[in-house]
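Methods — Computational structure assignment.
A single polypeptide chain was analysed. Its primary sequence is given first, followed by the predicted tertiary structure written as structure tokens.
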Amino acid sequence: MVTSLNKLNIGSLTLHRYADLDYDEWYAMSEFVDNSLHSFMNSKKELSKIGINQCEVRISILDNGEGEEINIHDNAGGIHPDDFERLLSLGVLKEKCETQLSEFGMGMKTASIWFGKLIEIETKHYLEDKCYKITIDIENLGTDKEVKIEEVIPSSNKKCFTKIKVSKLNRRLSRKKKKIKESLTSIYRKFIESGDMLIKFEDDELKPFSIELRESTDGSPIRKDFEIKLKNGRSAKGWIGIMVKGKTVISGFSVYRNNRLIQGYPENSWRPKEVFGSEGGSNTTKNQRLIGELDMTMFNVAHTKNKINFIDDEETEFRKQLGEYCLDISREAENTLKSKTVKEHESKPNTQIGKEVVTEFFKKEINTDVTSLEFTSPTIKTKTPSKVKEIYNNEEPYMDFSHMKGVDGINKSILVYHFMDSNLPYMIIDEIDDNLIVCININHPYYSHLSNNGTTEKEIEFKINCVIDALSEVHNKNRYGSYSPEDMRLTKDLFLKRWIQSMS
């Protein structure tokens, strides 16, 4: 059976514009997962009768020889033929369920078109014996081949499933894999932890990170639970606590709605000034360690599901109460985490403080016999280019200093990446395309020391010094071929001065 269905209820020219929507790759990908989870939760009792007790979603980004493609497979309830018209219509609300994750009737459609030009959906509903394939070719919209629905032999032996393939992609995704994995893990954290959901991104099962809170004198975690009630009847529950180890990327509030993350790690935790002192927070030790959650199920959400949409004066009232509830924890974090060095030395002369800090840093005897060290530079030099290329091709830059291009002979854009490899040095670099790639080893003992005992400012200063070292090395190599230690010092001096000038 082959039929044509012209039921994308919106002009084709508008659909083409969906490729330009302000999406992030991870939020767009979550639209597919939302659909799977919604289907599972909506039919949970019925699916349990046929042995399906967990929503399984498998995601892969592959190169099909003509470019990249996205594949999403689930074991949820499948799409019933009676729902095909709704599936292919924008803005048709879905049937309500206990966990309302997919509610606007737009997400999967807009995300699919944002990702690519060819969408193929194979689905078998748990109440149906037949399996159907739906093909949407965005490039041919406006012809009699807009949407094709055909009965097919199932490509899976599962009792019910949906497979979605998006190809002819509008954007490259391979370098976004790490961020997508981290984001999906965070977005569906509560469903993964409850056992309702299993997500596999290619070969990796997504598992949420654990949060370790500081303990009070009685051994209980430093955490405060609260409930905010607004005049209009809306309310939200939440908690705030103090982490043992500060980590800026996960600090702040994670905002949930129907147990799904709306705003939080790893992209944009909410740090309102009423709690964190400034909007977005600052790089203080206190703000690195304050963490919390907010359940805002009763509030409106943007159609992209990446932020709460307050109405009227809700936000002002909400922020005020939140600041009041969190004031004591915020003060406790500030007081208990104040640097010992500052406390003990604030009345001492600078020279004495400096001497004590240096003594503390080098309190252990250091082996200065370099002849006993085992150098592996030949191996490292051989491995470095391939490792840098691997990082460049698969990861997102942590920092982008492209604005330095053109300053004092710098002819490369500077991209800074993180990597973890105990067998490689603190930093590896190479030149790829028109970029200077600086890869900083966050698994190095010295960086680990900074991360665990220092501040964000110290970490950033260290990274900037790495960049300047890399610039100095590449500058001298490209300009002179060979260079002396003095050449390196003079070149670094130049870049240090230019760096400060660029910040003024």
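Note: Residues 1-11, 100-105, 339-346, 357-364 have pLDDT under 50 and may be disordered.
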